[in-house]
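In response to the reviewer comment on reproducibility (Comment 2.3), we provide here a single inverse folding case reported in full, input and output, so that an independent group could reproduce the run without further information from us. The structure tokens appear first.
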């Protein structure tokens, strides 16, 4: 049995060595052959030199170029360049547990209705801001009901991080959509479920993930998520998840609320109830997180929630104008890699 692993990468010198070591540290009960492709977007920070050094230690490791730099190209290069029975995608900042690959294969073998398997994310922080952001993103209030990041037990879901697929899935539904700078995994997994496959979250396997700690980059990242989500919706002529609608509705509400005072004090008070409810829930969630981790600051955690929701909502609304109302092509600005 052969497992091929694709690792999209761009300027990840600090993490790529640990990522590679963790892949090869995986334990197997079967006779397994690993093939690992680091698909690099022409890094200039020393990442490539680290990978080339490790090739002497791991002969099945190879470095491939991704001159276009975008993630879906890296996925497709890594998959199409390797023959395998199963394909695993691993982010350069993802450090797999040593049972990840074997357990994922076992699940796919045991239940043919499952086409994709992924595990839980265990966050590691590059700074205190990263810890705050990760804490907020671990809640259903922050990320929405049903998001795999908030699950506490194994079960079916709509998408996962660091997924494994049987090779035949790509023959059946094709590769990742290279038009999507963001949400390419979202799109692919929607195609999986649309074709009749199931996506399984396995809580007993995990990946350590180094969370970036920068509010500006967080805003840019989630703005792009919202923007590109509309592109995916237009492509499939469907709203892929109901939770994606909450942020844009919230942003529209905030805009309308600014005008309620023109209709009198009573209307303004009534119109303020949803905002008060949002503030109450945000403070309640933030307070719970601070109780679990006293190092966190209540107001820092609380402010992360509107950054997540407003940025995604604004991006989504921009996507509606671009893709649905004016039938435009994706903005060059939103094609820029936000890191």
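Designed residues, in position order:
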């Amino acid at each position: 049995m052969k497992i091929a692993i694709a690792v999209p990468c761009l300027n990840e010198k600090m993490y790529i060595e640990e990522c590679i070591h963790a892949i090869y540290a995986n334990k197997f009960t079967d006779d397994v052959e690993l093939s690992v492709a680091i698909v690099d977007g022409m890094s200039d920070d020393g990442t490539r030199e680290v990978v080339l050094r490790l090739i002497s230690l791991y002969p099945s490791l190879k470095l491939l170029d991704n001159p276009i730099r975008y993630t879906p190209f890296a996925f497709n290069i890594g998959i199409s360049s390797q023959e395998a029975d199963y394909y695993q995608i691993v982010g350069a900042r993802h450090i797999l547990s040593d049972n990840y690959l074997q357990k994922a294969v076992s699940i796919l073998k045991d239940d043919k209705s499952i086409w994709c398997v992924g595990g839980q994310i265990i966050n590691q922080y590059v700074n205190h801001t990263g810890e705050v952001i990760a804490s907020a993103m671990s809640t259903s209030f922050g990320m929405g009901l049903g998001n795999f990041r908030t699950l506490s037990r194994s079960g079916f879901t709509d998408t996962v991080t660091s997924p494994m697929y049987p090779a035949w899935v790509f023959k059946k539904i094709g590769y990742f959509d290279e038009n999507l700078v963001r949400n390419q995994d979202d799109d692919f997994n929607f195609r999986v479920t649309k074709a009749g496959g199931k996506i399984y979250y396995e809580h007993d396997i995990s990946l350590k993930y180094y969370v970036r700690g920068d509010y500006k980059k967080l805003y840019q990242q989630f703005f792009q998520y919202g923007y590109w989500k509309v592109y995916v919706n237009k492509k499939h002529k469907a709203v892929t998840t109901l939770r994606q609608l909450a942020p844009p509705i919230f942003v529209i509400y905030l805009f309308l609320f600014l005008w309620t005072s023109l209709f009198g004090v009573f209307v303004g008070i009534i119109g303020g109830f949803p905002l008060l409810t949002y503030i109450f829930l945000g403070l309640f969630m933030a307070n719970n997180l601070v109780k679990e981790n006293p190092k966190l600051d209540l107001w820092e955690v609380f402010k992360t929630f509107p950054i997540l929701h407003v940025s995604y909502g604004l991006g989504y609304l921009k996507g509606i104008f671009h893709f649905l109302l004016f039938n435009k092509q994706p903005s060059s600005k939103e094609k820029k890699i936000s890191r």
